[in-house]
Design brief:
The structure holds two protein chains of two kinds. In chain A, strand 8 and strand 9 form a beta hairpin. In chain A, helix 10 packs antiparallel against helix 11. Chain A is built from eleven helices and 14 strands. Chain A is an alpha+beta fold. The N and C termini of chain A lie far apart (about 50 Å). Chain A folds into three domains: about 45 residues, Uridine Diphospho-n-acetylenolpyruvylglucosamine Reductase, domain 2 (2-Layer Sandwich); about 120 residues, Uridine Diphospho-n-acetylenolpyruvylglucosamine Reductase, domain 3; about 90 residues, CO dehydrogenase flavoprotein, C-terminal domain (Enolase-like, domain 1, 2-Layer Sandwich). By secondary structure, chain B is of the alpha+beta class. Helices cover about 30% and strands about 30% of the residues of chain B. Classes of the chains: A alpha+beta, B alpha+beta. The interface between A and B is large, with 50 and 56 residues.
Chain lengths: ~280, ~350
């Protein structure tokens, strides 16, 4: 199939993007890498009247450390961040996740902010932003606001972005030098959506464990544990008690099982983690 | 074969070939206890195709048929909902194996020329699409010590088999079961109650007034009221948004058996380019001081392209649309909005079994 007709706007500056969004709102979609948008346009699942291409806006292509966060602009490709020499040092969790995000050609075009905007509960970057307790900077013609990840992701593909707002950047907070990180995922084939993905951050006895793929949003749990056995016990009970999805992709039983096995694997990784 | 029969020998039997090829397969399968996934470690396939006329083409037939067979044995499946909708209609849901999933089988040839063909050739086309699924199923049956294996042997199936054997923990079933996997006419069911800080009369006032109802239905563009046999019918056009998707639906909503201000039956159907939705339910309003307890019990089904695309995400999206509806109803009826908003969502989610 071919996409329904639309008007393409080549934005030349951020203020131009905000003007266009203010004017067209719900009828417009921002396009950066187009790795989700183009297929759904072709299937006519989405048929916006206006597309706003932000690829020519140079100021959006920046990323770097701002305060105590890694800030990534709307135009930054996933592979640019993946191959950044400082990534492993500043954001070890993201560097563990990148090889699991789709495939190389998709990461070469797809943007970090685009993945956050799409808010797929199985997406690695969505899990990363949620478990690191990061935030999203939303700009509109009238104001700018910073929304915490937990308030940004409302449900499957649903975010608190208003139709006139533009995701200018996302912020991934940098953890202290003693933090340990772990990540494990299972998908049926390489590059598939995660059936279950687990991200773990350990700071002394405090553990933050995030699960993607089990529900409409990423689920984050915290516990205090002094040993690997204790944290495994916590995950075991979590897997038994939490509501998880059951759908044609996977049974709830398999998802609970993966929470336990992948959870244990990611926790072990976080325990043995050595920073560069 | 002593001589080849020219006429069909037995009842319903037809001898389709003068010279049959033979194949023998053996494989080593590894089942990862952590993920319940089966992986092919080694695959050996031996063919007797008589005299091989073109070795490259013969091997090509084997590689091709083998790849198809691995797909059939471990990945590919046509999934239909109970109402007949095709659910694995995209390559995200209908999984084909990739090169790294298929691997390379070891091929051996045993050439025993046929006495019935001029060059001694037999057949070799697509032999592995028959032998390989059986071989993989047998290996898995052996590994798990079971007799019956249903193909494709997906991790969900292996997990279920391991639970049945007592090798893995039996967890409580999920209450968040997708409508795609249940077997009823109206697969999506929701039942529960919400507390609204307005009187039942206020809610009824909204339900009877198309102008005010327009503010309640998410994305409502137009609405017309008319009287039908035992109630009211609203014809409306609404734009439904589910994440990136947006579609205009023409919906017909019937309010029947209206017993103001206590209860009514809410039925409806919506049609749009992305599919069709049908729903039916009973709504009762119970007065409690200055508040109303809204009790609902409804069933719905979704079909068409909407149901076939991204089955993984559809359910959650429907819940969000319903959530919008309740929020808007409370607001329009004049409920104190601040604070209620959050508790309403939380409660709704609890009722739908999504949170606790």
């Amino acid at each position: 199939m071919k996409s329904a007709p639309f008007v393409m706007h080549q934005a030349h500056s951020q203020s131009n993007i905000l003007d266009l969004l203010d004017q067209y709102g719900e009828d417009a979609r921002v396009i950066a890498g187009g790795q989700t948008l183009v297929p759904v346009l072709a299937m006519r699942v989405a048929s916006p009247d206006h597309l706003i291409d932000i690829n020519q806006v140079k100021e959006l292509k920046n990323f770097g450390i701002t305060g105590d966060s890694l800030q990534v602009g709307a135009g930054v490709r996933q592979s640019e961040l993946e191959h950044w020499s400082e990534l492993r040092k500043t954001q070890p969790l993201l560097s563990m996740m990148f090889p699991w995000i789709a495939h190389t050609p998709i990461r070469n075009r797809g943007t970090v902010c685009g993945s956050i905007a799409h808010a797929d509960p199985s997406a690695e970057l969505v899990l990363g932003l949620a478990v690191l307790e990061g935030s999203v900077t939303l700009a509109s013609k009238k104001k700018k606001r910073v929304v915490q990840a937990k308030d940004f992701f409302l449900g499957a593909l649903q975010t608190s972005r208003q139709s006139n707002e533009f995701i200018e950047a996302v912020q991934f907070p940098i953890r202290g030098p003693h933090a340990g990180f772990g990540f494990a995922e299972y998908g049926y084939r390489h590059g598939d959506f995660a059936v279950v993905a687990v991200a773990v951050i350990k700071e002394d006895d405090a553990w933050t464990i995030g699960f993607g793929g089990i529900d409409d949003v990423v689920r984050i749990y915290k516990c205090t544990a002094i040993s690997l056995d204790q944290v495994k016990q916590f995950i075991d009970e979590l897997a038994a008690e939490t509501e998880v999805r059951e759908d044609p992709t996977a049974t709830s039983g398999l998802r609970r099982h993966l929470m336990r096995t992948l959870g244990a694997r990611a926790c072990q990784q976080a325990m043995e983690f050595k920073s560069d | 074969m002593s001589a080849y029969p020219i006429t069909p020998p037995i009842a319903n039997g037809i001898n389709t070939s003068a010279a049959y090829g033979f194949a023998l397969d053996a494989c080593g399968i590894e089942i990862d206890p952590a993920t319940c996934a089966a992986k092919i470690d080694q695959y050996i396939t031996v063919h007797d195709a008589g005299r091989i006329l073109n070795p490259a083409l013969a091997d090509g037939q084997i590689y091709g048929a083998y790849a198809q067979a691995v797909g059939a044995a471990l990945f590919e499946e046509f999934v239909y909902s109970s109402d007949g909708n095709f659910l694995s209609g995209t390559f995200a849901d209908y999984r084909l194996p990739t090169a790294s999933d298929v691997g390379v089988p070891k091929i051996y040839h045993q050439e025993s020329p046929s006495p019935f063909t001029p060059l001694g050739a037999k057949g070799i086309g697509e032999g592995n699409s028959m032998s390989t699924p059986v071989c993989i199923a047998n290996a898995i049956a052996d590994a798990l010590d079971l007799e019956n294996i249903v193909l494709p042997v997906t991790p969900s199936r292996i997990h279920a088999l391991l639970v049945e054997k007592g090798a893995l923990k039996l967890d409580k079933p999920s209450s968040q079961v997708s409508s795609m996997t249940t077997n009823t006419d109206y697969p999506l069911k929701a039942k529960g109650e919400v507390k609204l800080e307005v009187l039942p009369e206020d809610i009824f006032a909204v339900l009877m007034d198309p102008e005010r109802l327009k503010n309640v239905i998410p994305g409502c563009e137009s609405i017309h009221k008319k009287f039908i046999a035992n109630g009211i019918r609203y014809d409306c056009i609404a734009v439904v948004r589910i994440g990136i998707a947006k579609a205009r639906f023409a919906a017909q909503v019937d309010l029947t058996k209206v017993q103001s201000p206590d209860s009514f039956v809410l039925g409806g159907e919506g049609r749009g380019p992305l599919g069709m939705a049908l729903g039916m339910g009973q709504v009762s309003l119970k007065k409690e001081g200055t508040t109303t307890i809204l009790i609902y019990d409804y069933q719905a089904q979704v079909s068409g392209k909407l149901a076939a695309i991204g089955s993984r995400l559809l359910e959650g999206a429907i819940r969000l649309v319903l959530d919008q509806l309740f929020r808007a109803l409370a607001k329009e009826a004049g409920a104190k909005y601040e604070g209620l908003f959050k508790s309403l969502i939380t409660k709704l989610f609890v009722l739908l079994g999504m949170a606790k």
